[in-house]
Write a structure and sequence with these properties.
By secondary structure, this protein is an alpha+beta fold. It has one domain: Cytidine Deaminase, domain 2 (3-Layer(aba) Sandwich). The chain is 29% helix and 25% strand. It has a five-stranded mixed beta sheet. The chain is globular. The termini are close together.
């Protein structure tokens, strides 16, 4: 799906705002994500750390679960804002969760906190070229 520059900017702005709501006292690495639904609604998530590190929740998975809880299961794009200098990359677990709902050509915008207007533009398939899939929902 082709995303307009204006819509990409709105997604990046929403992800940046979400990053500033992050709870990241241990890593001091705030991340925000903004997920665009097929009905053009933007839902956000931020990372929420825990002193038991394995219980930490990533921004991207938070955005997906918030969207699913709100009744959305079809998504058109994702923006992730985090890191300084270099943009934060979604972890493998977040990419695999996205692959449950999104096709390989799903657009992903990545930007750092200090330079959110110069995103890297990639796709889910580039970030996770060999996603695990059981036969089930179609992503067409």
């Amino acid at each position: 799906m082709k995303i307009s520059i204006n819509l990409a900017h709105r997604l990046l702005t929403a992800a940046r705002k979400a990053a500033f709501r992050s709870y990241s006292p241990y890593s001091e690495f705030p991340v925000g994500a903004a997920l665009l639904t097929s009905s053009r609604r933007i839902l956000t998530g931020c990372n929420v750390e825990n002193s038991s590190y394995g219980l930490t929740l990533c921004a991207e998975r938070n955005a997906v679960t918030i969207a699913v809880a709100a009744g959305y299961r079809q998504f058109n794009a994702l923006a992730v804002v985090g890191g300084r200098g270099q943009p934060a990359q979604p972890c493998g677990a977040c990419l695999q969760v996205l692959a449950e709902f999104c096709p390989p050509e799903f657009p992903v915008f990545l930007a750092s906190l200090d330079c959110p207007r110069k995103p890297e533009i990639t796709t889910l398939g580039n970030l996770l070229p060999h996603a695990f899939r059981l036969s089930g929902p179609s992503h067409s």
